[in-house]
Amino acid sequence: MPNGKPGDHPINDIVQHRLHLFGGGVDEEIFRIAAEFGEGGLQKLKAFSTTTTFIEQTKAIQEQQRVLLDSLADVWNELIIERRRVAANQI
Fold it and tell me: Where are the domains of the chain?
C-alpha cells in the first residue's frame, strides 16, 4: 500500500519523488499527465498502473533493464581485467 515514501508505488515515485523508472520518455509523460490534470490525473494513472497492460509492459521494461545492466557489468569487469593486465605489464 502506498505510503508516500520512495519505492511504495511507481506512480508516486515518478510524480512525487521525480524518480526515473522507465526511461524513453515514459516517466516524463506520467509526470506531465499528473501535473496537467492534478488529482484526477493522478487517480487515473494509479488506476491504469493496476491494468494488465501496465503490469506486463513494466515487467518487459524491467527485464530489458536487467539484461542491459548485466551487459554493462560485463563491460565493467572486462575493463577492470584489462586495467590490471596493463598495470601488471608496467611493473
Answer: 1-50, 52-91
Question: Which cell numbers hold the place of 37?
Answer: 490534470
What is the model's pTM?
0.74
Q: Which of 22, 32, 14, 25 is nearest to 58 (CA)?
A: 22
* Res. 8 pLDDT band, cuts 50 70 90: confident
Residue 8 burial (C-beta neighbours within 10 Å; 0-12, 13-18, 19+): middle
Q: 598495470: which residue's cell?
A: 87
* Predicted confidence (pLDDT) per residue in 20-63, tens digit: 999 889 999 999 999 999 999 999 999 999 999 999 999 999 99
